[in-house]
Every structure is written in C-alpha cells, then in structure tokens.
C-alpha cells in the first residue's frame, strides 16, 4: 500500500474490534449521562466517533476511568483468581437529549389461571406446614418430651 | 428494746396519724443539680448537635472578624473545588443549586438616581436592547448606530460625552492590537497577548475619566489579578470511604477565583430589590456534585475578597473576568456545543460574584448562623476580549447549611445578560462595527453608586 498523506485517497479501512456495552449505573447519574463498559484500548475520541458515526448519537462530553478487577478470590488450589479489568465511559449526550436505563425485568401480568394456581399452591403449603408442626397447646415443645 | 419499743410510735418517720399538711416543696433558690443535657463526647446525634452548638457559640463569641474567620475555616476536610471558569456542561444550573441563586435574564431596572429619564428616551427605538430597560440613563437620547456626536443629557448633572469614551475605548483597542508590534502569541496564550492588556487599559482609563462624575470611583481601589476565595457548606452527604465511613457530613465547597481586575469601594452599593423578594426558582439537583464533574481536595479554607479585613475598601463594586483560551467561542463551535457558550459566561458570573459578595458579608461579621441583615450587591463583566456579558448579583442569604437552609426562605439573585460583541473587526487602524450599547452598559456599571453620594 502507498504511504498515506493528508488529502490523499484512503485505500485501507480500519475496522477496530471495539465493542461498547451500555450498563445500568450503580450510582444514580444525571439524566443526560449514559454509562458504558468499553474495551480497554478505546480512548475518549474513539468513543465519541464510534457513537456519532455508527449510531448517530450526539455526544457532548466523554469521561473514562479504568475499573480494577479484584485479585482476592482463591480457587480450590489456593491460587488467586483475578476478575478482569474493564474501562467505564460516562457519555454526556448533546442537544438536550436524556437517557434512562430501561427496566429489563418488568413485572409480568398474571392471568386468572396462574393466580388461582398460585393461591392453591400457597394454601397447600400452609396446610403441610401446619401438619408438620406439633400441637400448638404444647408451646413449641417437641412431642418426644414428656412422660 | 422495750424502752425503744415504747418510743416507737413516736419516731418521726412514722407519723401517719398526725396531721401533717403536705405542701409542695418550694423551689430552691439555685438549682441543686446541673441541667440534664446530652453528652459532649458520645457517639450520638444529640452529642453531635451539642458539639455543633458549642462551635456556633464559639464563633458567635469571637471578638474580631479575623478570629471569626479563623474559627470558621479551622477544620480542614475534603471539599469540592468549584471553578467559576469551567468547561463542564450545564454548569450554571449546578452552581445555582449550590449557591441558592435565582437567575433573572436582563439587567435590573435601576431607579433614576440623579438622572431623571430623558424625554426622548421613550421615543428611542429599543433595537437590540431587548432585556435592558434602563429608565435613568441620559445616553438613551442617542439612537444606536448614529454618527459620533456628543449628546447633551436632559436632567441634572454634567453631560456624558459618549464620543470621548468611545475614542478612549478605540484607542485602547488599537494600541493593543494594531499600533503596538508584538510577536505572535505563544500556543494557547492568546488571551494574555491582546485582550488582557486591552481590558486593563480600558477599565483603568474609563474609571479615571469617570471618577470626576462618580466620587465613589475616586475613593476606590483597582486591583490587578486579585484573588477571591470563599468556603461554605451546603447540604448533607454520607462519607463513602475511609475511617469516617458512614458518618453524615455537610458537603463542603471552596471557590478560588482570580478575576482579571477588580474595583473595591469603601461604601456599599445600594440594594436592587428588597431583601425578602422572590424572583424565581432555584434549581434542585438530587445527584452528588461529583457528577458535574466536580472533584474533592483538602487544603486551606480561605475566605478573601482581595484585601485583608482592615482595608477600608471592604465592599465590592465591579469585577472583570477574562475567559481563558480553553473556553473560546471557536472551540465550542468546533465541538458543536453552541448552547454551552452562554453557560460559560453565566457560570463564571454566578460563581465569582457569589464568592465575592459572600466573602464581603463574612468580612462584616455575618456567616451562615448569623445571616445578613442587609443585601450585598456587586457587579461583574465577563469577557473574552470581544464579547461582553454583564452580571449583577444581590446576596440576600448566607444560610446554606443543611440546618439553616430550611429556616430561611430568602434566595440570592443574579441578573445577567447574554454576551454581546463590543466591535466587529479591527482592520487597518480603525475599529469596524463598534457597539455603543455595550460601552454604555459598562459606563453605567462604573457609574453605579449609593444614593447618598
């Protein structure tokens, strides 16, 4: 390939093997801030270009930090097991956009059949438990205790 | 025993049968036991509040203002460093919530002090001056954009020669940018190269020429590159790491500001609105300040207005701020953040003026437990050499700590304009597109004085 100089034709395309994972923030973030786990080799400029060019998301500011994965756990051979390090990016969206991480496990509506089955099951378990327990008049004392 | 037994019924301890009128015990002249209060050293909320009260009494009972300031900032803990000139997005909203400030766009309507409104003022077309109702200015007789003719004012007092002031401003500008041959500015030192000296020259010449008209300016003190610091508490947080983990602490802030120029005066500027006025809402932000982003450091808790406590010029008049190269307009436009340009001016105005007025109030002996009894007013001009934004701040309350903020309904008020250019270009020894309104607003700021003078 000929050497690239500014203004010349771009004959090679670089497709970096970058991935970005949007995560739910552990601590509450402002409305315009989205939290991502990104590859350790990505820079703030890379993140901005990635979001703007591939996903057309207007990015106002990017801040990154590297989270150190702990090395304290031990396996069955007493070797230290390291949790992997990862980079976290806080992206502030431009043009006044906001983002709220969605609730991925919403409560499902139960139809009448499942509800009645659940009620029946609870009642059955209650009856079984009562059978297991002894006479309530004995005040929790086991039945083998006595004369 | 029989003798004793005979005397038994007569023992004074058992007088059931005798008629003794029981009356309430009279209160002793002085209490027999000390008052029952919470401990001082225990690890309990009552003990903590008792320690706080003892500290407050110590500060109240301090003899001099220096001693009060020393006790106020004695305990050093990690605190957020608030920078007035910041690139953080939407910083002015966060700063307003930290300082309990209401932002009112436009300039406050000034009462006509010694300048009755000119008859032509009402007929003047208000082009380009939309948020600035200035009822008292004689200069309004000149319609914007006319040629340089000095207009005599209607009303008492000597007339204001706008032509002369305009020529002063143009001279300063041309001297710095055209006549004086300077080398090319070093990388990222553009602001120190031309706009810095221009601003200094402009302000000093304008102040000198207007001091005949405003005796307060004649008694003022012009500081070059002064330092303004203020330290305060606002809100509560739980300590996250360290040996103090889990304790509830106040959130501490510190502003360390270095305005380009500052005018300090011996007399207080008059209040703009009454102390208890409510002109808007203060934004409430639930998130921690570190999300702005704002960072913590532990160092000296300084409260300083630019001079020490014993200086006679202890009140503030006007500050002049120069925006650094990092916050130039072109950079924001390149990053496609045009709406943040005004945010920079506003955050600078609000934070710097809050720090200055609050430090002035502390120099007079007020603090968060002893709230101000009169409002403290100061003005500021934020510029990047070409664009000027004007701010006026009225400090109504210093009570921002978690305990005192709910008892005080007062809010601080900041009036601010958008940034307007003073000129368009400087070419071949002449200034093109000079904007008189900006100059007039600057002159109006410098001429502001208390009513007695």
TrEMBL record, chain A:
One of its GO terms (biological process) is mitochondrial translation. The keyword Metal-binding does not apply. The gene is Mrpl23. It is found in: Mitochondrion. Residues 109-140 have a biased composition (Basic and acidic residues). Signal peptide: none annotated. This is Large ribosomal subunit protein uL23m. Its main location: mitochondrion. One of its GO terms (molecular function) is structural constituent of ribosome. Keywords: Mitochondrion, Ribonucleoprotein, Ribosomal protein. Belongs to the universal ribosomal protein uL23 family. It comes from Chloropsis hardwickii. SUPFAM superfamilies: Ribosomal proteins S24e, L23 and L15e. The keyword Mitochondrion applies. Residues 109-147 are annotated as: Disordered. GO terms for cellular component: mitochondrial large ribosomal subunit.
TrEMBL record, chain B:
GO terms for cellular component: mitochondrial large ribosomal subunit. Residues 109-130 have a biased composition (Low complexity). It is found in: Mitochondrion. InterPro entries: Ribosomal_mL37/mL65, Ribosomal_mL65. Keywords: Mitochondrion, Ribonucleoprotein, Ribosomal protein. Coiled coil: none annotated. One of its GO terms (molecular function) is structural constituent of ribosome. One of its GO terms (biological process) is translation. It holds the Pfam family PDCD9. The keyword Ribosomal protein applies. This is RT30 protein.
